[in-house]
């Protein structure tokens, strides 16, 4: 190929020209696209009935069998098809939903629910105590395929049908997170008839009691939900009664984030979820759109040390890194103010979150260097500290994909720890090798988050019971174990007195931060951008969107 | 002729068999265990893991798994997805039409624009129109498709609002993705056609044709182009592979249905039966099309027919 210089110059000129044309259009032109909302911002006082909502989902659900799956997006869609026995409000109070009332036995091991008697599944079969029992037994079955629901049921023992509308649920030991867990769509009630009818394909044919029912599902394209006209048992957070306003919801499956935003801006969808930071900033300024956020409860994104493996089993070393990493700078520059910084392993929307941890430590390079000097790690010729001939290294592992810009966080951390003479090796791996590395616990540091609800999530990430083995990967990536803390984690989930419980969780958070077991980075905000024609998208407690109150103005 | 076809069909079957074997073992060589990926990060007891492995036959020795798989494939059973238990064939057939239409349209765009630009470029060789076309085709080939896709969406969907940005549906949903892939394809074909025309133009028979006074137009279109087309047709067969591979990216960017997206999701989830089935499907199409390409040589060039 003999491209002489003049032709090459041509190419550059044209390339620049083309990008200018396109970017010029995309930034400049805000003069009312064909289908945008009118300028009056206040929504009409009586919501418009009927119509359809088009909503861009950030991926494809793998199944809608909420009792079996462990994937967030499955639960998000499932929320509008399945109802729960109880609902949790943002202030963490538990309210009746499909259960009218409940009693907890004196030994705290049994819950007796009085169920609503006027509820039917989408297939016409009645909702009753037997149906709930079938669901719980199925999810708790030790030989069953349930992943997350089983975990939410904890030390579940059995369910007893007292009568048509009374159910007693028994646990092997007190399990206080139960009611909060029950509020999640994961423990939403599915039609027992659908289990029989569809077998292992029930995930493609979900049948619940919710405000919407599945109308069609075209893989990799769209999921259509239609109104359940018989619906009269809305969640305690609902703002109206009776059936939903919308006739139809079309969930478009659009995994690529820029395409999701483009589809919203071109009017193909009225709302889209999981909006990237730079687009949030732009859409917030655009008068045609509004942004809604829910800070997800559970364990925040944190950089977790392998607390078992030398040299990072030494608390002083971990603290040195904790005082070096400038989380504020990282979060501000990467998320442009759209993600709040996290100070605790628990997210700020979780029950028992300890806000006194905020600003409780700061960047202090001098202190960090001093800690490392004291521990005998001396600066080598190449600027890396060493001891007994070994360099001070952090081997960080992560999965490919740069989810939520986590890969960019690590690049910044890598630069920052260089200041104190620590060398950070970053391995980004495909899912297979990543899970293998987790199983083998061959890393020093790993970044992860866990969506949850109850502060009992601390047991998921810090209990000995959840250590990985060479057989299978588990969730205590910190490989943390301390008998006293383990006892406190157990006490906390068995404790029935909310105040004592919260106090214990606060102590635990203080401990994990002081000992730098992990370094919390950000709280993830689940975001929805919507046209101003859309009103009434609400979030349930774990932060999944509910479309029951949604109306679309013409 | 019939013997040639039969022989080629036989070879194709052997190639397919090799593909199945290679894909099967390559996938199993990849590190990572599908069941662990399925449940990753959730506290699950070893019993559940064992049960899931047994259900999908993953607890058997590899050679047994292979023979079982082969046996099933011959009976037309491609197994069930590890993720959602859906039969692989049902899954693929639901997605295949979208990929087929996308590939056909981008192929058509590539061929029409590619041949046209290639001929024009050759006819006006070393003049400014030729330079411009060659420059554009270099651009077409070298720009990353996802980037072109995003630019086209910004221009035609967000700003002009002429075409939908994502999804599947009528013809209008097909235009942007097919154009994105067609830009690459026409660039490749244009360069190939230009090159091979210029080669043929310098052959003695062309000089003879001109010497006997044939008008330039009929020299070009009746004689030169026909002779120059064989490398271009070979290229088109290869291009199909390129387009099928490109579908993996394009279908994700435009949130289209399609086999490409099935492959991508399945690889990420290490959903072995689905990856195997999808690769088998695309490989079969690729082999079939290249068989047709080989046979078409005979139509284009009578000399090959006699050989």
Automatic annotation (TrEMBL), chain A:
Residues in the signal sequence: 1-24
Write the protein's name.
ABC transporter substrate-binding protein
Per the record, its GO cellular-component terms are: ATP-binding cassette (ABC) transporter complex; periplasmic space
| Gene Ontology terms, MF aspect | peptide transmembrane transporter activity
Q: Please list the residue ranges that the record marks as compositionally biased, kind Polar residues.
A: 32-48
**Xref: SUPFAM superfamilies:** Periplasmic binding protein-like II (SSF53850)
Q: Which family does it belong to?
A: Belongs to the bacterial solute-binding protein 5 family.
Organism name:
Paenibacillus agri
Chain segments carrying region Disordered: 32-51
Q: Specify the Solute-binding protein family domain's residue ranges.
A: 93-456
Q: What is the lineage of its organism?
A: Bacteria, Bacillati, Bacillota, Bacilli, Bacillales
Kindly list the biological process annotations in GO that this record carries.
peptide transport
The record's keywords, sorted A to Z, are: Signal, Transport
The yes or no answer to whether the keyword Signal is present is yes
InterPro entries the UniProt entry points to: Peptide/Ni-bd, SBP_5, SBP_5_dom
TrEMBL record, chain B:
**Where does the protein end up?**
Cell membrane
Q: Which Gene3D superfamilies match?
A: MetI-like
Q: Which residues cross the membrane?
A: 7-30, 98-123, 135-158, 170-190, 228-254, 274-300
- Signal sequence span is none
Q: Which GO terms describe its cellular component?
A: plasma membrane
The question of whether DNA-binding is a record keyword is answered with no
Q: Name one GO molecular function term.
A: dipeptide transmembrane transporter activity
Q: Which CDD domains does its entry note?
A: TM_PBP2
Record-annotated ABC transmembrane type-1 domain positions: 96-297
Which SUPFAM superfamilies does this UniProt record tie to the protein?
Answer: MetI-like
Q: Record keywords: Membrane included?
A: yes
Could you tell me the keywords of this UniProt record? Cell membrane, Membrane, Transmembrane, Transmembrane helix, Transport
Highest taxon listed in the record's lineage? Bacteria
How is it placed in the membrane, per its record?
A: Multi-pass membrane protein
User: Which InterPro entries did the record assign?
Assistant: BPD_transp_1_N, MetI-like, MetI-like_sf
Give the main localization category. membrane
The family annotation for this protein states: Belongs to the binding-protein-dependent transport system permease family.
The record's annotation in PANTHER family points to:
DIPEPTIDE TRANSPORT SYSTEM PERMEASE PROTEIN DPPB-RELATED
| Protein name per its UniProtKB record | ABC transporter permease
